[in-house]
Amino acid sequence: MSDYGTYGGSDEEYASIKKCNALLESDADNFENWEGLIKACETFEGGLNRNSSPQALACFRDAYDRFLFKFPLLFGYWKKYADLEFNIAGPESAQMVYERGCASITHSVDLWTDYCSFTMETTHDPRIVRELFERGSSFVGLDFLAHPFWDKYIEYEERQDAQDRVFAIHARIIRIPMHQYARYYERFRGLIHSQPLAAAIDQDTLSRFQSEVAAEGGSARPELEIERDIRAKIDTMYYEVFTLTQNEVTKRWTYESEIKRPYFHVTELEQSQLVNWRKYLDFEESEGDFQRIVCLYERCLVTCAFYDEFWFRYARWMTAQGNKDEDARNIYIRASTMFVPLSRPGIRMQWAYFEESTGRVDVALDIHASILIQLPSCLEVIVSWANVQRRQNGVEAACQVFKDQLDSPNLDLYTKGAVVGEWANLLRNSQGSAEEIRGIFTKNVQQYSDSRIFWDRWFNFELDQSGSDQSKNMKHIFDEMRSKSSLSLATKKELAQIYMSYLVQQGGKDAMKLFIQVDREMFGPASVSFKASSNPKQNGSSAELDEASRLKAETRYLAFYEAQGEPAADAQGQVDFN
């Protein structure tokens, strides 16, 4: 962050900027705080202009750069930034801002229209202007609401008195399903009659129409009559194009009319909006036009940028298209580095799995490591990282991940207990020695007895074993859990049910004696329960955990792919980003 203490404004102005930055340091996600900073910088020294001090300009640019790095989809602020740069430093600086903006929000009709309009007014080379319009059309030309962009393109060519280009643009537009398709067709009908036949249609079609007219009326007819009949066929052909476009517009109208917020904002969307986007994407995918599908996904991800379900969906669809690894990679990168917060690491882990699937194992490992820099106690990522190592480098490499995490000062006691359980579970799944695995549990039980996952994994390990010692080992785990752990009674009851299920399904002749005893002591009234007869100091357990510690100790995790499900069909109201 810049040193705002060096700026040359008044003390009051400096205090305002300092206050805004202090608010952002405490809450960088608060949009109103960012708006306050932008306003304070814009009004610094009475308003920005060419004569503003270098300090004021540095303040303004730093604020806009940080703001638009945080919220790159706010096309209006890119336009505002470019306008200010134009007034301060001239067209080249403004152009750089527009380029950055269009790279950040590639499918913004408004921003491309503004950029092209700006270039029309500041550039006298038609080649440069036309190249920019064509670049823009490749991104936003198929948008259902692209009419402002196409209107600006037509306006430019009319200024250049390039009627042939005006006609060619209309000939492109009438084939695009857009909100104002009929207006362009009506204009096109007027233009086509002023075009020579050779310019109105391609040569092959013209030759075919000439042959048909000659066959229908003979060759001795006046030239004007022949041309009239050919133009009638041309009109019919383009009317069929119009009808086809009209049908395509009608198909999409249901979905388009339901889009209430076609732009980005930091507030949540209504459930009905997400449902509409899902249905619209389903429809467009069923139509099978790659460019139109990409265009719709990009529109959707402006509005729904903070909903990772659409990033997952876009990447999955892209990987199914064949030879699109780089496109899919860019989707993951955008989602992971710009929009989906690190507190929801699923999309980043999916990216890591994608990279592993393409042979870029080092990248996959680096992604895991980078997540753990910010979320050092995220068990899901630790386990996933270990399994990448197991798949690619063997069990020893995977075990080393767990050992390194146990040595890390960044992990709390409860996460380390879960790590021990997952380490043993990995060995169990890899056909490791039963004695080695059992030794991991018994060696660590005293230190990590307050981790639910530790006990889950120990119970599951012994359930997989066979032999005469299984019953004794299961009872030992139950007794250890009940006496040494400070987990809540509710959690102990759930763990006890694992043992009770074992007694019912795998126990011997006397198993029901133990079952009745466990049932009485864990689920009976207070007068006969284990808790009533227990003394923490005597049985070795520690005092009850506080609420924050209890949540860490008892939380069970699901891998991101296990937590995914169908959205509730009857849900109402706003949908939380999480």
UniProtKB/TrEMBL annotation:
GO cellular component: commitment complex; U1 snRNP; U2-type prespliceosome
Locations listed in the record: Nucleus
InterPro entries listed in its UniProt record: HAT, HAT_PRP39_C, TPR-like_helical_dom_sf
Keyword Nucleus: yes
Gene3D superfamilies: Tetratricopeptide repeat domain
Gene Ontology molecular-function annotations: pre-mRNA 5'-splice site binding
Coiled-coil blocks: none
Recorded superkingdom: Eukaryota
Swiss-Prot/TrEMBL keywords: mRNA processing, mRNA splicing, Nucleus, Repeat
GO term, biological process aspect, one: siRNA-mediated pericentric heterochromatin formation
Alphabetized PANTHER family for the sequence: PRE-MRNA PROCESSING PROTEIN PRP39-RELATED, PRE-MRNA-PROCESSING FACTOR 39
Family: Belongs to the PRP39 family.
Name assigned to this protein: Putative mRNA splicing protein (Prp39)
Organism of this sequence: [Torrubiella] hemipterigena
Lineage: Eukaryota, Fungi, Dikarya, Ascomycota, Pezizomycotina
